Amino acid sequence: MRYLLRRLLALIPTLFFASIIVFASMRMIPGDVIDLMLAQNDISTGQDRARLEAALGLDQPIVSQYFSWAGKALQGDLGRSLWKNTPVTEQLLERLPITFELGFLALLIALAVALPVGIYSAIRQDTAGDYVARSFSLLMLAIPGFLLGTVVMIYPSVWWRWSPALEYTPFMVDPLQNLSHMLVPATLLGLSISAVTMRMTRTMMLEVMRQDYIRTARAKGVGELTIVLRHALRNGLIPVVTLVGLQAPLLLGGTVIFEQIFVVPGMGILLLDAVSQRDYPVISGVFLVVGVAILLINLLVDLSYGWLDPKVRKQ
Amino acid sequence: MTAIAAKAASARPARRGLVITFALKLWREKRLGAVGGILFLLFLVCGIFAQWLAPYGINETNLAYRLTPPSLAFPFGTDHLGRDMLSRVLMGAQLSMLVGFLAAGLATVISVVLGLASGYFGGKVDMLIQRMVDAWMTFPDLVLLVVVISIVGAGIVQIVVVLGLLYGIAGSRIVRGAVISAREQMYIHAAQSIGGGTFYILWRHVLPNIMPVVIVLFTTRIGAVILSEAALSFLGLGVPPPAPTWGGMLSGAGRTYMYVGPWLAVAPGLCLTIVVYSVNVFGDALRDQLDPRMKGSR
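^ inputs. structure came back:
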């Protein structure tokens, strides 16, 4: 309980600075929001300008502007889209689950690939299989996600007349249709994420397998499979859990690219569309939500770390 | 005694000799890393001399030869406007290298300044800087880049500054760690006790000691920066067309023609992958040689 409290307290300054980054980015917009709004509504008299400024609270000192913005944001009010004139929160809530589904699927695939291969690589160190696995992970680190996506879009269609599905169906409407669309981008994103996890798993397992208690287990005559699964894995996987948290930014950043290539209408596309339409409230909304989501994921990871590793809990 | 004298003598050969000795050692002990370094140098040379190496002008359109498959006249084929892909890829190397070196250089300077301040002074300064770094690193690189570019606009200067800031702030953590362990060394305490000024100590004693970390940081950042620039150009937020960026060649406009000319993706994609791969393995080898403590960290 004390551990939980301490973690929550440590979150506050980070959240504060992160919100300042988002707020500052909104205030650095070229020209200003008023010009943009006036330009879009084709009315621009001096009176309108002053009225709008007062309505948006832009005539107030910057510090109180920040607090009124942060207060509204805490209540889920992120302003309205300049383009569609709907609340930003509404748009975000519509897109958020889609991105999370993609990210979650990708994470599952990444772990399903990285853990077995990483463990195999460690217990068969310096064999041909180990080299193949390591070269693969190095290669995946170097191939950019958008190249992978482009290649999968182009070549199967040129060679075999097969191309990935590009039509989004909500999960609730038709789960199978939805998964068949999401599977290709999720696999690619998962593979590109798996490289780091694989390397980490291998390193950790190598370290654990050299420890005394493993030798003790071997001396007792415990089978190799049991040693790996029951003794080594428990210790070796703890740092890997942290890594999954560290990869949350990579995962959410990667969705931007893959959503764009495979036309998945998530937050990434929302962000890119908002950027091309210069819809700044939406941009900063996505910015804030992504940051908060990652902070929360890392909090969960930290908590599970304490739960998995008694050494951390006792400290 | 003689051993010490010999060691002292061998530790101080001419500077160029040192680099060559190090390169030979790298070749012997870390073959893959050395090959990566050579490949990277090759791309660097191609980039520097791209103007002279390119057989055609990069924006020289020739509609009679549009979407020509690779041939002797056009080794990498031509694109939908009949522009020679080899020439464009070569100039793309120049752009990537330019952005890579400038942004990685800027990032390293920022990392060193922040890391020194945070690590050497400690206390409240450290606390404040680290919380800000935390907040900054909360956002995914790509999202941060897209948001900032949407504000400052696309262009080569903007890209360099933004990438430099992004990786500079993130990298300050690594420098900070190195500074903290250097700070507690005896010679630093000695320098402090004889009344050395803070900047003198930082410049003359701390900085030279964290140089291995800084060199490795710079090298690995080049790969990361090149990759990020390509991703931004792919999204249409990098260096604006018709500049021949590798990321841009793989993006939307080019992609529609790839179904007809699949070779369009090959050259820029391969170049990007090879450059990043070679600089990564070179950086890894450099890290193992220069700074064993950082081994395995990534």
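The mean pLDDT of chain A is 78. The radius of gyration of chain A is 24 Å.
thumbs up if we can close this ticket
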